[in-house]
């Protein structure tokens, strides 16, 4: 059991491929919300580029699912109000056998 402080949605790609030698477009939709517990490992504005700064973020997310295979997720915070934390590429997925949860690093 996890203590929920947000939720994620996974980007699901459908379509694509070739039909009659012509490429078909890929459509991307969001999955249903999955309750999660997220914790920021790194979240600062120390990234620098020529025109200014950007936010660096790394999160550790716990969910209660058996299988997780998404490549891209959207993270939302629900502690005080609904806040969109951003869209992230999944870096690693680690099943936690002792708790029955999955740890996702983005």
Description of the structure:
The model has no long low-confidence stretch (mean pLDDT 87). Strands 1, 4, 5, 6, 7, 8, 9 and 10 form an eight-stranded antiparallel β-sheet that branches. The chain has a two-stranded antiparallel sheet with strand order 2-3. 0% of the residues lie in helices and 66% in strands. The chain is mainly beta and 106 residues long. It has strands at residues 6-15, 18-19, 22-23, 26-30, 34-49, 52-63, 72-77, 83-89, 92-96, 101-105. The radius of gyration is 16 Å and the shape is globular.
Would you spell out the secondary-structure blueprint of this structure?
Layout: E1 6-15, E2 18-19, E3 22-23, E4 26-30, E5 34-49, E6 52-63, E7 72-77, E8 83-89, E9 92-96, E10 101-105
